[in-house]
Each structure stands twice: as structure tokens, then as C-alpha cells.
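haha ok so turns out i had the wrong file open the whole time. this is the CORRECT one, sorry everyone. sequence first:
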Amino acid sequence: MSCGDSNTIREGDNVLLFLDDRRTYLVKAEYRRFHTHKGFIDLGELIGREYGTKIKSSLDVEFVAFKPTLRDYVFKSSRGTQIIYPKDIALIITFMGIHSGSRVVEAGTGTGALTTALAYYVKPDGHVYSYEIREEFIEVATRNLKRAGLLEYVDIKNRDVTEGIEERDVDAVILDMATPWLVVPHAYEALRGSGVFASFSPTIDQVVKTVEALKENGFKAVETIECLMRRMRVERGRTRPETLMTGHTGYITFARKALRT
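then structure:
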């Protein structure tokens, strides 16, 4: 991320201003005023102070200046389309074994939420090759990746992935698109032996077609998972699940490339 390993806020660093559990703001430490409904904050006063410091607005309301995490960059990304939630991103990263040095093909860049997470984990020695057919999404994703300090680890291609994948011997192929089954044969050719495939689909009909294509094209260890997340309201004597939860967002289908004999 742009703030590196330092815990001191420098000019131009990103800062997450925390007001409460529902209201946070991703800003840059620079010499200007940031206006909120709780008064304005002189962002220049953050420069030279440590992350975690408290700062008061013009209305004497207290904010905390946190160092942004990957979750913050994902949730605060500029949007023009539905993003993949961190709960699903975490599952994808873990199940696929994405790590520094991984070479990953992604299709369906959107506004770059998943792309940002992938770039964060493959750096500094890996790379993400992301396919997107809509130029307006590419522009937004590029801005989001640049803000997170991760653009150098990503190549965004204005290409239709259903027509083929240029890369070979990649470690992973991840699809977030309406017709992932059309890309399965191309994914097989792009992956190294034992490479991992994943697709994110909101409907079960998409999953069925994708699983059928995976089995027809030499993939093994095929499985589909739905990840649900429920927060807890914690208060002594009144602890219970929150009324609202992040329920169904999509189904994630995983598979591994088995070499043909």
C-alpha cells in the first residue's frame, strides 16, 4: 500500500478516518480541509503523527486516523458495478493459494475490487493479468489500483476473454463474469499442471453450466461453496446476532487442472 511499512503518516499517505462502525472516510494526508457532517478536519495536522492517533473536527468531534487495510481499499473503491465482498475474496485467495510470486489471470475486472486483493498478495514478484471488455470499468479500476499503490503489479487488457487467454503456465485463473463456462477451455490451456480455477457466479444456473464444462475439460477436485457472514452485536447481557447480515452474494466454484495422459 502507499503508506508502506512506516507507522508515521507522511504527506500523500492514505488515512482511514474512523468516526464509528458505520462511518469511515478514506482520505489523503495533505494540506486541505476535509468536510463532514461532524465538522471539518485539517488533514495537514495528521502529517508527522502516528497511525492510530486521534484528531478532533471543528465541532470538537473525535475521529481516529487508522492505516488503511486491504479491506478498506476494497470497500472504499470507486464503484460502477457490484464488487466481490471481502468474505468471498478471502475464500478465493486462501483456497487458490495466491501468494507472492503467483501469476494470476482474472476476467471481469469491473472496478477492481478483487484485482486489488490479488495484486496485494502476488506482489512484489508476481503479476495479475486482468481481462475487461468495458473501457469505462478499466478507467475506474485503474484509479482504484493506483490509489492502493498496486497498479504496477497488474496488466489490464481490453479484451474478450471468451476469445482466448494469451498467458501460459499461470498459477490461477479467476472469473467474475456472466458466462464463465465459455472460458473453461481457455483456462485449461493457460494453467500449469495442478493450477487452480475459480469462478464467482450469483446464480446456480451459471454454476451448473460451469461445473459441467470443468468436468468435460479435464478439471478435477471440482467443488462449489457459498460463504455467508453474520456479525454479532456484543453487549454484556444482550449479545446476539445482528438483525441484518451479508447473506448470499454468490457461489464460488473451484477446480484443479489435471494433465491429460
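The longest helix spans residues 135-147.
again sry for the mixup
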